[in-house]
């Protein structure tokens, strides 16, 4: 019997038989009898915000606040309340299962990381503004860790010395910190967030890639169990380093990423790394071009400051610069929102005082723009021709892989990322092992993350509708809520609860059913009107709502509702567990 099934069975068998009622106020009663009840489960709901556009409705984050899942503490910082914590716990339990499937052991590293380690790895340069940094009373420097590559590499370095100790796979689910310049969209872009990080250690690059493939399969299995549509895309490793990475996304119109897919082949790439090939037949038939101007980041040479102006010549028309393609050619391109005009105005004073050198000009043209078409007098010296197109892909463009005009663009929210790091951290931090031939070999590493709190925010937005949240079965706070109409006797709701739980538990334990959700119904026994309870059930987003209404008194049948499947039907109570189990297969 699996650990999770044994845990559920134990909880059911050890549930207290006695009933304890605690009257706390004139309307709130805490009723503890071993059954899940909303009377003691705090759900501080709020009224809708005024002025919401009815055509657009509330987004997932607004609904999480209103339904009592979380509260905002500061910009980009949120408190999880009981409902939110139940969702978080379910996501974590799912992750635990899939990490154990690849032989990973769980750890918990400190949120405080040494600044010295980050300096040694070379990752501190250029990241000062996004890190929360502090000093202790002895003036030692620390930071609140956004990731733990340096710390975990140091731990392994001091404990693992032989190839016989590899492979090693360690993961954690902890709070991370990043001082976002512009926190937005609730849990999707916060300054404090919950992350799962898996760190892998192998002897050779070949073995590390085998590990990478195994982790990728575990990620796909995890997302498949969620039963939400997802995309996997080749991605840029960015500041993490390494040579091979993939992103895992939920398709969403609110997403900040754009995934480029081909309808004819298997191409799937983040827009950041999808650079279209230049075909000679694409020579511009337009004689006009448009100029984009930027600059490089400033550098200092003694007292003097210097930077370069970057002029980019693009085809005129419905084209947009791919800033990532340009950065491939100009690595020190400044991508901050600080405009070149502002910089010119600020620089003029420094130029007059001799504190800034006259900027050089870098001129680059998209290969479709012929040099003779450039009439702008800002071009200084040689105009470099880019080896690939400098504009973003558009719907119906030619695929860089198969040449078919089948490009599709999808807005998406990133919820996971896998990186093959190689020796990016093991080499500077001197994490090596003795190989079989007695030579010292730098450990091959991988880092694989899932944004846990980000996933919760994305899932909430993905299925929400005009009535409220609509959770996937696997991570709903409770799979089922039981609501009695009018003056339904408490013993009747208890009867339905017990029948449902015993039936579902029996089916769950008799498996095998990989996607079977543990039974976790809840009784809404709060002292509230019947209509209010039904509206609240829709707002919270339980996958199943069971109503003891008219059919209960006459037929001992309950009304079973499933908003995601469009189900509303009367079901005899004895058949309820089987019917819900059948619908669970579709969720």
UniProtKB/TrEMBL annotation:
It is found in: Cytoplasm. The keyword Protein biosynthesis applies. It catalyses: tRNA(Pro) + L-proline + ATP = L-prolyl-tRNA(Pro) + AMP + diphosphate. Residues 84-472 form the Aminoacyl-transfer RNA synthetases class-II family profile domain. One of its GO terms (biological process) is prolyl-tRNA aminoacylation. GO terms for cellular component: mitochondrion. PROSITE patterns: AA_TRNA_LIGASE_II (PS50862). Keywords: Aminoacyl-tRNA synthetase, ATP-binding, Cytoplasm, Ligase, Nucleotide-binding, Protein biosynthesis. Its EC number is 6.1.1.15. It holds the Pfam family HGTP_anticodon. It is an enzyme of class 6 (ligase). GO terms for molecular function: ATP binding; proline-tRNA ligase activity. It comes from the Eukaryota. Belongs to the class-II aminoacyl-tRNA synthetase family. PANTHER family: MITOCHONDRIAL RIBOSOME PROTEIN L39/PROLYL-TRNA LIGASE FAMILY MEMBER, PROLINE--TRNA LIGASE. Homodimer. This is proline--tRNA ligase.
């Amino acid at each position: 019997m699996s650990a999770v099934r044994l845990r559920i069975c134990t909880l059911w068998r050890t549930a207290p038989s006695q009933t304890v009622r605690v009257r706390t106020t004139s309307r709130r009663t805490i009723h503890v009898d071993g059954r899940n009840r909303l009377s003691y489960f705090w759900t501080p709901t709020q009224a809708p915000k005024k002025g919401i556009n009815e055509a657009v409705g509330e987004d997932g984050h607004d609904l999480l606040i209103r339904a009592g899942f979380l509260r905002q503490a500061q910009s980009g910082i949120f408190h999880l309340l009981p409902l939110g914590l139940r969702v978080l716990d379910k996501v974590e339990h799912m992750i635990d299962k899939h990490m154990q499937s690849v032989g990973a052991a769980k750890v918990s590293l400190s949120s405080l990381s040494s600044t010295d380690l980050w300096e040694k790895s070379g990752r501190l340069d250029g990241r000062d503004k996004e890190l929360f940094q502090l000093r202790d009373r002895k003036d030692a420097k620390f930071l609140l860790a956004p990731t733990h590559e340096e710390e975990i590499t140091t731990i392994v370095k001091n404990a693992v010395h032989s190839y016989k100790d590899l492979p090693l796979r360690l993961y954690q689910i902890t709070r991370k910190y990043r001082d976002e310049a512009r926190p937005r969209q609730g849990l999707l872009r916060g300054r404090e967030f919950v992350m799962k990080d898996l760190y892998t250690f192998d002897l050779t690059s070949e073995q590390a890639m085998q590990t990478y493939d195994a982790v990728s399969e575990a990620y796909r299995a995890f997302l498949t169990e969620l039963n939400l549509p997802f995309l996997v895309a080749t991605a840029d490793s960015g500041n993490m380093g390494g040579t091979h990475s993939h992103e895992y996304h939920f398709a969403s119109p609110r997403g900040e990423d754009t995934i480029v897919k081909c309808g004819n082949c298997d191409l799937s790439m983040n827009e950041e790394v999808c650079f279209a090939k230049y075909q000679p037949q694409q020579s511009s038939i337009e004689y006009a071009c448009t100029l984009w101007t930027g600059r490089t980041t400033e550098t200092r040479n003694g007292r003097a400051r210097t930077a370069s102006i970057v002029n980019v010549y693009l085809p005129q028309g419905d084209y947009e610069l791919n800033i990532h393609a340009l950065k491939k050619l100009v690595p020190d391109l400044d991508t901050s929102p600080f405009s070149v005009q502002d910089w010119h105005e600020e620089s003029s004073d420094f130029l007059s005082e001799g504190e800034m050198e006259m900027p050089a000009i870098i001129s680059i043209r998209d290969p479709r723009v012929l040099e003779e078409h450039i009439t702008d007098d800002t071009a200084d010296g040689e105009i470099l021709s880019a080896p690939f197109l400098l504009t973003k892909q558009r719907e119906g463009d030619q695929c860089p892989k198969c040449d078919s005009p089948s490009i599709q663009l999808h807005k998406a929210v990133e919820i996971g990322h896998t990186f093959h790091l190689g020796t990016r951290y093991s080499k500077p931090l001197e994490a090596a092992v003795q190989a079989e031939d007695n030579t010292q070999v730098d450990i091959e590493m991988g880092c694989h993350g899932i944004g846990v709190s980000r996933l919760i925010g994305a899932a909430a937005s993905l299925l929400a509708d005009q009535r409220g949240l609509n959770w996937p079965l696997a991570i709903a706070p409770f799979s089922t809520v039981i609501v009695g109409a009018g003056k339904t006797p408490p013993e009747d709701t208890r009867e339905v609860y017990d029948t449902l739980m015993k039936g579902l538990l029996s089916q769950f334990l008799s498996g095998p059913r990989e996607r079977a959700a543990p039974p976790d119904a809840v009784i809404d026994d709060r002292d509230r009107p019947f209509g209010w309870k039904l509206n609240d059930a829709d707002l919270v987003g339980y996958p199943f709502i069971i109503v003891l209404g008219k059919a209960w008194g006459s037929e001992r049948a309950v009304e079973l509702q499933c908003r995601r499947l469009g189900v509303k039907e009367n079901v005899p109570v004895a058949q309820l567990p089987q019917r819900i189990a059948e619908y669970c297969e579709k969720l």
